[in-house]
Amino acid sequence: MAQRGMYATTDLRPLLVERGFRLSQSQVYRLVAERPVRLNLRVLMALLDILDCTMTDLIEPVPARGDRAPAGGSPRPPRPKRANVLPE
Predict the structure, then answer these.
(1) Among the listed residues 74, 80, 47, the one whose alpha carbon sits nearest the alpha carbon of residue 62
(2) Residues 6+ apart with CB under 8 A from 24
(3) Cβ(40)–Cβ(27) under 8 Å?
(4) Do the Cβ atoms of 28 and 13 come closer than 8 Å?
């Protein structure tokens, strides 16, 4: 089900609360307006549900600093960061 248009970060906060995420207004603003340093996978899944989109609609892979093209060819794809999975 597609959501109505969202025009402010304040529109996103109650939708996250419905899904069990109580983020402060400043956290929601940083999530929307800035490039997150970390993003909880469950919050990401909630955003995908709220926005009715896929991960590729929200995330654009970029090469890490220091990644260079190998001699004679195309650049290497970015290497994923190692996940830190914590028990609940």
Answers:
(1) 80
(2) none
(3) no
(4) yes
Residue 38 vs residues 2, 70, 79, 87: alpha-carbon distances, Å = 26, 29, 16, 17
Query: Locate tokens 């996250």: which residue?
Result: 16
pLDDT in tens, the chain (88 residues): 444 566 778 889 999 999 999 999 988 988 888 887 788 899 999 999 999 999 888 887 777 776 555 555 666 667 777 777 777 6
In angstroms, rounded to a whole number, what is the distance separating the alpha carbons of residues 39 and 46? 11
Number of DSSP helices (H) and strands (E) in the chain, helices first = 4, 0
3-state helix, strand and coil shares in percent for the chain, rounded to the nearest 5: 40, 0, 60
pTM above 0.85, yes or no: no
